[in-house]
Batch of 4 targets.
Target 1
Amino acid sequence: HAALLQGLDALGLLDSSADSESRRNILVSPLWQPEDGTQRIAAALAQALAAPDAPALPGKFGFAVDCGAQAVLRADSADIRIERGPGGVTVRAEGYATGACVSAEEAVPAAMALAHWFLAQGGKTRMAALTPQPALPQGFQTTLDFSPAAAPPPPGLTPAGWLVGAEFGQLQADTLAALATLGALRLTPWRMLLVEGLQHAPEIPGLVTEALDARLRVVACTGAPGCLQAAAATRPLARALAPSVPAGQLLHVSGCSKGCAHPRAALTLVATPAGFNLIHHGTAASAPDLLALSLETIASHLLPTFHAP
């Protein structure tokens, strides 16, 4: 552990204090290009959040820096968003249709002003939790003409390199080490890594490298025995059922009713001591439509659901 800390410190990846680390919640578009200003704005924002006069923001309060030609982070959680705008960038609070149109150099001061305003309104958790929704300060009341947001790209080639998916969002250490030999790695919020400059799919076992990979159509938590809350193994079942899930549909296999891997509604299987409950459209906590299915009969119950009109 000491050697790890020493190495991280040499790379400039350790914060000066736990407080500054807790404030540095910055989500950066993985598709950034050198000329779009994303990295420069993100670095200036990190510096501002580490300053002595930085706002004492809640632990989950975060910023998104998404300055590419198309915004790709709008479906991902953030409280203050910095995006490309006419003649510069826009800075806005999550949930508001208006914001500030500023130059790239003014983006971070504007974001800090918005963060201080959030606290002045009594904000305790997230921007969306401000109710009733207060009027934004002067300067943030320009109606924004949002450019169409791009959906997160699937695994495959991008202008910045090759996006590779991690099966169930988890990588083995040796897989990560092998990827790192192919190029600089960028983290994404989409259970994928981007290998900078790579022009072909890496030949490393266990990775999801193509958009049509059936494993992209299943979601599963750790399951038993890795999670003590889980009533059964989940990932072997999800892996086996993936080829049966049609394109455009999603199957969620949960080890218990908490549904940690996918909190939104989907076709869901939930492990119980008696077998798997089937929920046609709901979360893992929803009322089941079928109870205690055995591993041998699950597929026969799922197939009609997949092909229902």
Note: The chain has a mean pLDDT of 92.
Target 2
Amino acid sequence: MQPIKNGLAKLAAALAPAAARLLARTLARPAVSLAVLAACAAAALGMPAHADTIRVGGKNFTEQLILSSMTAQYLKAKGLDTELTSGLGSTLMRQAQESAQLDVVWDYTGTALIVFNKVEEKLGAQESYERVKALDAARGLVWLDASGINNTYALAMPRKRAEAAGVTTLSAFAGKMRAAGEGSAHPFAVDMEFAARPDGLEPLKALYQLPFARRDVIQLDPGLVYTALKNDQVELGLVYTTDGRVKGFDLVLLEDDLHFFPAYNAAPVVRQATLAQHPELAALLNALAAALDNAAMTAMNYQVDIGQQPVDKVAQDFLRGHGLI
């Protein structure tokens, strides 16, 4: 396989520097399929790759593996020829779609707004969606209807602790902390990135008037935050709202009632050129988006991450259970 990769890289470098750069990034990821390599080579030659095939892409975490598998199976069941390439990094997937190597992906409003469009303004969920839709239209990318999936940050507690404290919102939790006084301990697990980000821990503490002392904040690998919550080693932890471990470890998400965390609503994103060739995609993908919400996504993530079920089976079961195939 290495000679094939080397040959494709040389061909792309000779014929198209932009495509060569994309191919070089792709080759750095050993799990990427030959389909993407071939597509990059086709771009270098200035030729369309599989013009009649809908190329579906997905990122490299459980939720995205499920969504991309689901989309490929769904469109194939509707009579469309599909090709699936998943396991991509977020930036690589975006670059592949912008360079016409992928046709359909699922992305998140917060990611597109903050990471790809560099918008620092704090916006609500609908405002974020409308802004991203307008900005990406200029790049030839069409955001279809947003799903009910909002995979944003949240603060979680072990259920026993949350029920004992009688809190369901971050404001209520902060009030309990302040009432407990300075001498009380409130171990709070966060990942190192969030602890250091200028839009992370410190502004969160300021907005909710959370009196965390330095000794309270425990910086861990993101996966270990869930373990610490499961083992009741911390009172509070930073998690993602649709992670399967929220359900699997019986955690309670505290409502972000002051709306600190940005919206990360998942939506199907299609190249304008692909949509012009296959206008039926809009209705099909909007119907799929309408069937998805946080509860459904969390349950599917749980089935894969905790239940160890195959991604393709979980995706197919959802489609069948909702009468989509």
Note: The domain at 153-254 is CATH 3.40.190.120 (D-Maltodextrin-Binding Protein; domain 2).
Target 3
Amino acid sequence: MKIYTKTGDQGMTQIYADKTTRVRKDSVELALYGTLDQLNALVGLLCCELTGDEQISKLTPALQQIQQNLFQLGYGISAQKVLDDSQTEQLEQAIDHFYAELPPQTSFILPSGTKAACTAHLCRTTTRQAERMMVGIQDHYDIPTNHLRFLNRLSDYFFALARWLNASRDVQEVPVP
């Protein structure tokens, strides 16, 4: 099978929503798919940043599960709705675990620190972008509320993870004055 089909050479492509539909490649649907794909690639990069430290590399399976969940979110505008509340609950448990080991946050902080933490911040901001796009297509597609909840919690997860990654390396947060 060839990777190229030539069917998109004129700026159109096919999506699988309630029915198979051809859309422009600059459609809101494809923008959301592309942002979820970008986020998935960033999570993969974050996994690469976690190798070499036994304590930190234990996070890799959870991040790979998040990658699977992100792929499933792409089906959120189709008839296949596969995420349930348990994925969001797992994120909440991880956030609580990270925060139990962190000092209280007393100010806004700059996205900075280790390369892994900065990658987690990139994941956070891309998650927020995907969330905005998903909200934007709600008027056209039946987006499950738990998919939006998952994205909202996922950005919190990446923020908590970034803080935790810096703390685990004794890297101080940079407060915003």
Note: The chain has one domain: 26-168.
Target 4
Amino acid sequence: MKQKTTLTAIWVLLPFCIQAKNDVKNVLFIAIDDLRPTLGCYGDPYAVTPNIDAFATKGLLFENTYCQQSVSGPSRASLLTGLRPDEIGVTDLNTHFREKCPYITTLPQLFKNNGYETIGIGKIYHGSSKTQDTVSWSQVPIYNLSIKKEEYTLAQNRQGNKATAIEVADQPDTSFLDGKVTSEALKTLDKLSESKQP
């Protein structure tokens, strides 16, 4: 059954890879967990999210979401392998799916094997060093490991063992890790758009 599911996932995705090889289409995959759809593009009346909203009008906006397991590691591994957490043996944050399924082809690996440059920036697989999958990527991923809580907030906003609930700071975006990740992603996309490599 596992082999059949994997082959089905490959057959479903392969035409997109073949088409991309001929048409040189690029694919940007954004993975977000622990985020409710409180965004303007989902109709939230209070959210001010102009960049994501503009991006949503140009891309494919998924309106139904499903979670295979209420833990990010298994859900991410499931999404990227096409198999349920119980099929790949990932039901916690510390298990790597290749321990039980060493020869499985992941979604980014499928693209890589079909001529794409696959680059991981930020948390795609679960953020521990044990759960990373170097086989999936053309380059070594960056900003892919979970960060310590003291790296997440500005120094002036830390109080004792707990950071403040919100931050309002007149700082460049790159003062925060998500700003650094976004900046690096934009630089990488610019470099890739100048090349002929999908």
Note: Residues 1-12 have pLDDT under 50 and may be disordered.
